[in-house]
């Protein structure tokens, strides 16, 4: 996985608080985008199921009909520092793989939240998830979607 979208934003809180709101409240701040829906029945409500002794954890979308779609397994869970999660849409085949890495870095009294979404080069341009966009255009749209979500995250953290 070599190509990627990288979006950063500063939020007015500690890295651990940013991590907690990012993960515990993703269903509240996530910004839905018709171009990047996970299933034909989306949008639903996103939620992280944190790792435990019995499970690696995962990111899911609870659909309006109550069904759960697994977006991806949690690969790294370091509260206040780093999160890595698999990211897939329902139309992905086994050869398609994207993942999202989120870093939480202190910057004075704020935290820089950086999202790196990589692996879209494994999804062909003519695939439904890519909407026939060349990677440069697709990444611009994907970056806009992540930027909108992170703006909602910042607004949520500014209210607390």
Question: In whole angstroms, how far apart are the ends?
Answer: 37 Å
Q: What structural class do helix, strand and pairing data support?
A: alpha+beta
Total helices: the number is 3
| CA-atom Rg in angstroms | 15 Å
Major beta sheet, strand line-up: 1-7-6-5-4-3-2
Report the principal-axis shape: globular
- The count of β-strands is 7
Report the sheet with the most strands, covering strand number, pairing sense and barrel closure.
7 strands, antiparallel
Share in β-strands: 25-35%
Binned, the helix content reads 10-25%
Question: Could you explain how this protein is built, in words?
Answer:
A hairpin with a 2-residue loop joins strand 6 and strand 7 (110-118). The protein starts with a strand and ends with a helix. The mean pLDDT is 88. The longest helix has 25 residues, at 135-159. Helix content is 24%, strand content 34%. Strands 1-7-6-5-4-3-2 form a 7-stranded antiparallel beta sheet. With 160 residues, the chain is an alpha+beta fold.
Provide a quick synopsis of the model.
The protein has helices at 15-24, 26-29, 135-159; strands spanning 4-11, 45-49, 58-62, 68-78, 82-87, 98-107, 110-118. It is an alpha+beta fold and 160 residues long.
Q: How is the topology of this model organized?
A:
Elements: E1 4-11, H1 15-24, H2 26-29, E2 45-49, E3 58-62, E4 68-78, E5 82-87, E6 98-107, E7 110-118, H3 135-159
Antiparallel strand pairs: 1-7, 2-3, 3-4, 4-5, 5-6, 6-7
């Amino acid at each position: 996985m070599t190509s990627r979208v990288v979006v950063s934003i500063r939020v007015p809180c500690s890295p651990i608080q940013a991590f907690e709101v990012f993960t515990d409240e993703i269903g509240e701040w996530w910004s839905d985008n018709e171009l990047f829906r996970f299933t034909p029945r989306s949008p639903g409500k996103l939620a992280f199921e944190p790792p435990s002794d019995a499970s690696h954890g995962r990111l899911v979308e609870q659909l309006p009909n109550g069904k759960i779609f697994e977006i991806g397994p949690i690969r790294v869970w370091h509260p206040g520092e780093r999160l890595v999660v698999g990211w897939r849409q329902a139309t992905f085949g086994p050869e398609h793989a994207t993942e999202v890495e989120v870093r939480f870095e202190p910057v004075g009294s704020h935290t820089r939240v950086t999202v790196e979404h990589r692996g879209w080069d494994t999804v062909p341009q003519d695939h439904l998830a890519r909407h026939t966009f060349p990677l440069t255009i697709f990444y611009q749209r994907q970056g806009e979607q992540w930027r909108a979500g992170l703006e909602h995250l910042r607004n949520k953290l500014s209210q607390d």
